[in-house]
Amino acid sequence: MNVRRLIPAAALAGAVALGATALTACSGASAGGGKDGKLDVMSSFYPMQFLAEQIGKDHVKVDTLTKPGVEPHDLEITPKQTGQLGEADVVLYLKGLQPAVDKAVAQSGVKHVVDAAKLTELEVHGSSGHDHTHEGEEGHDHAHGEAGEDPHVWLDPVKYAEVAKGVGAALEKADPDHAADYRKNTDELLGKLTALDTEFKDGLRNTASKTFITTHSAFGYLAERYGLDQEGISGVDPESEPSPARMKELQAVAKKDNVSTVFFETLASDKTAKTLATDTGLKTDVLDPLEGITDKSQGADYFEVMRSNLKNLQKALGSK
Q1: Cα 76 to the chain's mean position, in Å?
Q2: 177 and 238 co-located in one domain
């Protein structure tokens, strides 16, 4: 039986309220503080950068701490980046994903800070894709958040939409002169995310298998949303090494659940995935956790890569 650990409702409500009102203090003091009159937004990594760009559009200047091709979990902040962070009008990050960013944000003194982790419910997802912690089991790594909470909320279009709402509200408060535009842009983005959710629902409704194996357990929210079972080679940290017992377990799972494909990703090593595929006679393909966009990505932005992920899942799972 799946056991889900959620943030208590009362605590979540308070957290969302804090996230939405965190920018009220001195809301007009630094709005449009950049030399070009635009709101300077510093994002922690690509999914946060994408939201700022889509909602802020011409009214914001967005930079990111995690450059293309850098694995976000391992990011180290340079002194130059620390300085840029401190000069930003708005900082948008996801606490629990990047320890170096969490520390830098806490020390930055920036008044307008939005923590995306407070804008939706976080859950605990284990390496086997079920909502439990695997406490005491070797080879299961929970390096993120409180009590092993999974930070990969952007891979679920519904949860990403919840974060988008909070980001939109935050930008409205940081730059009230353009609030109507932020609201309009947020609504447009929510419409696109709703359409994407429908595409995933329809595309994954009838499949020969419900189980997929992937390099690290980034797809727990996606799997739960669309009735799939994620089997991660490693935990939510892509650099954690699986135990021999875990590899043996996955070989058994692949046989039992009619798994055809082992997925790897563009920003982390594919060595373990290819080893497992070779040992089990399976194919390999890409399932991108969208932690960054490079010229190797199967798409130029969030929506294109997510649709590539959907096609790859349909192929691997035998969509009917």
Answers
A1: 19
A2: no
